[in-house]
Structure formats: structure tokens, C-alpha cells
Amino acid sequence: MIPANRKFLLTLLTPALLVLLVFVAAPVIQSIILSFHRIIIGLPQLKSPFIGAENYRELLHDPVARHSFLVTVFFVSTTTFFELLLGLLLALLINHRFPGRGALRACILVPWAIPTVVSAQMWRFLFNDAYGMINYLVFADKVSAYIPWLAAPGTALFAIILADIWKTTSFAALLILAGLQIIPEQLYQAARVDGAGMWRRFRHITWPLIRPALLIALLFRTIDAFRVFDLAFVMTQGGPADATNVLQLYGYKKMFVEGWMGYGSAISVAVFAMVLVLAVVYVRMARRRLLEATL
Amino acid sequence: MKIIGLWVTVGIVLFSTLMLNAQEPQTIVFLTWKPNQPEVWERLIQQFHQEHPQILVQMQIGPHSSTESHAVVTQRLRNKDASLDVFLMDVIWPPEFANAGWALPLTSRFSEEEQKKFLPATIAANTYHKTIYGVPSYLGAGLFYYRKDLLAKYKFDPPKFWTEMLVQGDAIVKGERDPALHIYAAQFKQYEGLVCDMLEFIWSHGGHVVDPQTRKVLLGEPPSVEAVTFVRDRIIGRAAPRGAINYEEPESLEVFIQGRAVFHRNWPYAWAVANDPEKSRVAGRIGVGPLPAFTGHVSASALGGWQFGISRWSKHPDAAWEFVKFMTSLHSQKILALEAGLAPTRIAVYDDPEVQERMLHLKHFLPAFKRARPRPTSPLYPMISQELQRFFSRAISDRETDVEGLARATSERIERIVQMEAAVQQ
Q1: Of B141, B57, B94, B27, nearest to B332 (Cα)?
Q2: How many CB pairs lie under 8 A apart between chains A and B?
Q3: Domain match, B115 and B39 both
Q4: A238 touches chain B (CB under 8 A)
Q5: Which position among A261, B126, B301, B397 has the lowest Cβ density within 10 Å, counted as fewest Cβ atoms?
Q6: Residue B51: which domain range?
Q7: Residues B145, B134: one domain?
Q8: To probe the interface with B, which of A38, A43, A143 has the most B CB atoms within 10 Å?
Q9: Residues of chain A contacting B383 with CB distance shorter than 8 Å
Q10: Contact status of B179 with chain A (Cβ, < 8 Å)
Q11: What DSSP element (H or E) covers B151?
Q12: Mean pLDDT, chain B, as a whole number?
């Protein structure tokens, strides 16, 4: 028996659940089904035979996919690390009272508010080897020293990482700031009375209390970074030498450029599975921390 | 009551039939890649509207790169999108579009007699298993642009060989004492253009990726491997700026028209841009001809260019054909040539006195057009191209790579694709 008020709650939830089912669950299931078939758009004569896990077996032995995976993991770990670190510093800064704080808070959100495609295009111009701003800032008019940032495998990945950090640090800062603002001022006052210095106040009050917020920021940033696509698509198309060929871009190329729908779907399902596992682990950790924090 | 209901129904039916016969303009959607002179295309479409008031053409502009355009067009065709009627196809798409059943066969509309009026290579590119699927709009082929003024100043003739180009370029760059001046600018980003540029080096060294006769994959053979190694060791970071590894056509053309490169490889459209004094610093000081070759071999150009195709899902194939016929007519090709610098596919345009008078350079284009070669023709070409892009980009970005080993591994992967296609055709 479902109690009457629960029934009412369920009725209220139904529209939301339906939307989730149609727009989230259905495409995912569709991708999973596609990934078990051999579908090549250029060869409709193949029909679309069911081939079991063959796409996944091929994926495991695909050196390009392995390389893409490593590139993605490197991208995720560096961007998440720096975004959280810089986000924390920014949050601590704008949590202080000082003249112009409101304006600064608004400014910090600007990069995050710009659509990624637009900011990616902007960074592409900034990193241009001949007329890019960055070369001018670093080398001024020593034209012969100009570095073609997007043309060398190492620096191209670095450029994309930098663009991502620039763009989403403010998002991390916003989440951490929310965590900072729930810390009662009295705790700091009491600590000051007890003679605690700045570092000790941070170490023993701020840090333990913002950990749940940090964890949530970490969760969002990791998952988001794992699905990176637009930055690489606009700035480098995955090149040079596949140095920025992140997993999502590789899946996109397989599906929409090569027309290899089954295999491309297998790649996106693999990304989905990895993100899902990460999300579950984080959510469990977050729940534990939140419990600890309230105790 | 029943009678009134009947009359109302009859009235509605009559009214709607009348509406249909009243020649509501039919809207056809034309999807094109991003043209360099969109205003010329718009003007042509306006002329078409004047001649055919019952048809309304809606032009939709896609991305500039061929690969991205391909993704946009194929996605709509795959979804059987009836709102798309006419599209421009890159020269490599017809086999794929034909085999997938997306492009309407044009046999009944585009007669063989009419086909004979076009340059034969462009008709061949639109034919798959003896059926024609597209009407060539304009032709492209890799062309070799050079600074006429600089060559004259140092008393050089346009180079016939790659090594000759390097020697001349060295002398000019040393003599000019300009740190921003490079010998060569071309397209080496990991995208479709890279395949064209690299194939030209391979072909002009006697190599092949896929032998057109035997269908054997020859990428791992010495002529191909040596040509790729030459590009890596002598072109990238030496003759061409290292940044060329991230250049598509617009970026490399920018280098040339800013006067920062002596030689430049590009498609025919670059002529008009490079001679436009508002955009170019080298207007009027450039020459054009076929690309150099390796000593003992002949020059080769990648065949490019765009064709009109009609969607199999179009609800107005007749209106669509009227539009295609208009856009590929002698009149339209002449306008596209004179005003947008696009090289005509109709032979008669080359003999037109006005075109000859105003476009003297077309006769310099012709030798390269005649040496143009198609990229491997296959409905699975996009897969082959992705393998090639990966290989070429890796080979030229890193001086340490084992080009031969990489070429052999790529050959094997391409071999698998070719066999996959052959298995289906049987």
C-alpha cells in the first residue's frame, strides 16, 4: 500500500520522470542497442546485423581509442585539479568583504557564461601562430621566436587545457563559494579568541566544512571534463597527430564522418559507462562526507 | 443538417484543390557549404526567382570545411529529411551518396549528350556504376601560386620541381632579409585538405595510396614513404612555417596574401582573393600554374570541386532539377567564374570571349585541371580519409616517427576497408 500523500507526490513527479525517460533514457538505450550492431552508413547492403559485443572487442584493441582514452584522462585530471585549486582561491577571495566585491563576483562568471564554441574560437585566434595575442604577449615583436601553439602535439593539448581552465574555474569557484557561505561567522570569531592564526582557521574550520562542496565541484567538473568535445572540435579537430583527439570527438568522427554508427555508439556507451561509474563513486563519497559534516 | 454537413465538406475539398492549383510557390531548400562569395550565389538565386516565380529557393549555408559539411548533409539525408532538396557535394561524396541511396539518379534528366559538354574528369567523378548522380558546378584542383615579382627580381622561372622550389625560395628569403617571409604555405592540418596536399606529393613522386586499376594499397611502398618523409624533413618547419600543421585553406592563404610566403598551394578560388587589393597585399603580383613534381616525375593535382545533387527524399524533384539546371547553365557558370572566380566545369565557358578576356589566368589553370586525379573512389572513402589524415598528421608532426612502419600499419587498415567494400559489392 502506498500512503495517500506519497501517491500525490508520485503524481507530481510523473511529468519530470516522463521527460527524463524520453530525453535521457531513450537515447541512451538507443545508443546501447546500436552498439551491438554493425551499421555502416556507406554500405546499406550490409543491413544492420546483430554482432554481439564485437564492436566492444574491437574497441579494446583499437590503438587510436586507447590513445584517445589517455588524452582524455590527462585532460580530465589536469583541468579538474587546476579548476578546483584556482576555484578555491577565487572563492576564498570573493568571500571576503571588500569594496567592489559584487562587481568582481559578476565578472568572474563571465567566462563561464560565454558559450564554449565562442570561447573556443576566441582561444583559437589567441593561439594563432602568426597574429595571435599570446605570441605577441610572450615574444613581442620577435617574430622568429613565435610558437605555433596549436601545431605541435604537446602545446595543442596544453592550449585546450588552458582554455577549459579559463572557462570553468569560475563555475568551481561558485560551488565552493556556496559552501563557504554556510560556515557560521561565530566559529571564526571563537577561533580568533582562542588565538588561532589564519592558517589554523583555514585548516581546522574552513577546510573540513567546505569539503562536501569541494566534492560536489569535483563531481561536476570530472564528469563534464570527461565529455569534452566542443573545445577540441573548434580549436584543433583532434589534431595534430591525434594529440587532442578526445574520446567524444573520436566517437563523433566514427559516427558522423565515417558513418560507422555501431562502432561510434560503442565509444559513446563506453564514455557513458565510465562517467556513470565515476558519478556513483563520487555520490557515495559525498553522502558519507555530508553525514560526517552534519554529525 | 446532414445536407449542410455534406456541402461544407464538398466546399472544403473544392477550396483546397483550388488552392493547390493556384500555384503556391514551391519552396526548395538548397544546402551549400560556406561559399567564399555568398553574394554572388544570392544574386544568381534572385535571377532564378525572376525566371521561375513559382519556385522559391531557400539557401542554407553550412560549415566551411568539407568534412564538417559532410557531417551536416549526411545527417539530414540519413534521417530522410524531406525538407532538404538540393545540396552541394564535394567531389569525393558521389560514390557514397549513390551507394547509400541518398542522391537521386539523374539519368533521365541529365542526358549523355549534355554530359559531353562538361570536362570528362568531372563527369567521371559523378558517375557510380555507370549511373550519374550529380551535375558538376565548379572544378577545383591543387594549383601552384607564386610571387611573380619576387621570381622576376631574382631572375627565376616558376619551379618545375620541388627541390628547385626550395633552392629558389632559399635564395629569395635570404635576399629579402624578412624574418616573416617563408618559402611555402599550404594546408597541413589534420583534415581532408591534408589528404589532398599529401596525395599531390605522393603522386608527383610516382606513388599511390590505392592503385586505381588493381585496387592494391601502395601507401607503404617507397615512392609514397619517401614523398611523406620529404614533406616532414624539408617542408614543415623549413620551407613552410611550423604553424602550417594547423592551417586550413583560409589560414595558409592569409600567409600568402599578407606577402609572407613566396609559393602557395591552393584551389582556384584563391586567385580572386589574392588579387583583390582590399584583402591582399600581393594583388597583381602573382602567377599561377601546375604544382611542381619530384625530379623524373610529372606534376599531379588532387581533383576537387563541387557538384549539385538532388535528395532522394525531396518532395519536389522537378523544381529541384529546374534549379540545378539553372545553376549549372552556361550563363550561371560564367557568372560564377567572372564574379566568384570559380573554375567552370562546362568546356564552352573556357571558349567564351568575355571569360577569356577577363580571366586570362584560366588558361594557366587548364594544365593543372588536365592533370587532376581523383582521390580513392569508394563509398567508404570517409573511412580511408580518416586513416590517411591520422597517418599524415603523425608522420609530419614529429621528426622521430618511423614513417615506413606507420605507413605499413596504415596500409593494412586501409586494405581492410577496401576489402569490406569489395565483399559487399559481390
Answers
A1: B57
A2: 108
A3: yes
A4: yes
A5: A261
A6: 24-140+304-373
A7: no
A8: A43
A9: 42, 258-260
A10: yes
A11: helix B148-153
A12: 91
Q: Using 50, 70 and 90 to split pLDDT, how confident is the model at A28?
A: very high
Confidence of residue B37 (pLDDT cuts 50, 70, 90): confident
Distance separating alpha carbons of residues B292 and B160, to the nearest angstrom:
5
Co-location of B286 and B316 in the same domain: no
- Cβ distance of A41 and B100 shorter than 8 Å: yes
Q: Are residues B314 and B194 in the same domain?
A: no
- Is B322 in the same domain as B308? yes
Question: Are A40 and B380 inside 8 Å of each other by CB?
Answer: yes
In chain B, which among 306-335 make CB contacts under 8 A with chain A?
none
Q: Contacts of residue B100 in chain A, CB cutoff 8 Å?
A: 41-42, 44
CA atoms within 13 A on the CB side of B235: 26
Q: Is A145 on the interface with B (CB under 8 A)?
A: no
Dist CA B378 CA B416 (whole Å): 13
* Exposed / middle / buried, residue A42 (Cβ in 10 Å: 0-12, 13-18, 19+): buried
Determine how many CB atoms are found less than 10 A away from the CB of residue B225: 21
- The CATH number that applies at residue B47 is 3.40.190.10
Residue B272 lies in a domain: yes
Yes or no, beta carbons of B243 and A130 under 8 Å apart: yes
Interface probe with A: pick from B194, B397, B401, B412, most Cβ of A within 10 Å: B397
For B199-266, where are the E strands, in sequence order? 261-266
**Closest to A240 (Cα-Cα) out of A118, A71, A78:** A71
User: Is B145 inside a domain boundary?
Assistant: yes
**pLDDT confidence of B113, banded at 50, 70, 90?**
very high
Please tell me whether residues B285 and B421 are part of one structural domain. yes
Residue B99 forms part of a structural domain: yes
Q: How far apart are CA A125 and CA B318, in angstroms?
A: 45
Q: What is the pLDDT of residue B359?
A: 87
The pLDDT assigned to A1 comes to 56
The C-alpha cell that represents B389 in the structure block: 589524415
| CA gap A92, A183 in Å, rounded | 12
pLDDT given for residue B2 in this prediction: 56
B394 in the same domain as B277: yes
Residues 19-48 of chain A with CB under 8 A from chain B are 40-46
Q: What is the C-alpha to C-alpha distance for residues B222 and B226, in angstroms, rounded to an integer?
A: 6
Taking CB atoms and an 8 Å limit, are A240 and B242 in contact across chains? no
pTM: 0.84
- CB B379 to CB A236 under 8 A? no
Q: Which of B169, B339, B328 is nearest to B264 (CA)?
A: B169
What are the pLDDT digits (tens) for B343-395?
Answer: 999 989 998 999 999 988 898 998 898 888 889 888 899 999 999 999 999 99
Count of domains observed in chain B? 2
Q: Which amino acid is at A219?
A: L
CB neighbours of residue B319 within 10 Å: 22
Tell whether A237 lies on the interface with B, counting CB pairs under 8 A: yes
Query: Which among A216, A188, A221, A217 is positioned nearest to A290, based on CA atoms?
Result: A216
Are B132 and B123 in contact, with CB atoms under 8 Å apart? yes
A264 vs B: CB within 8 A: no
> What are the structural domains of chain A?
64-246+270-294 (1.10.3720.10)
* B275/A contact by beta carbon, under 8 A: no
Is some CB atom of chain B closer than 8 A to the CB atom of A139?
no
Q: Which residues in chain A have Cβ-Cβ distances shorter than 8 Å to B101?
A: 44
> Does B285 share its domain with B413?
yes
Residue with cell string 624574418: B179
Q: Which of B341, B356, B373 is the last residue before a domain boundary?
A: B373
Please state whether A105 falls in left (phi above 0), alpha (psi between -120 and 50) or beta: alpha
Note whether residue B337 is domain-resident.
Answer: yes
Give the mean model confidence (pLDDT) for residues A95-122. Answer: 89
Residue A39 carries which DSSP code?
A: -
* Pairing of the two strands B182-185 and B261-266: parallel
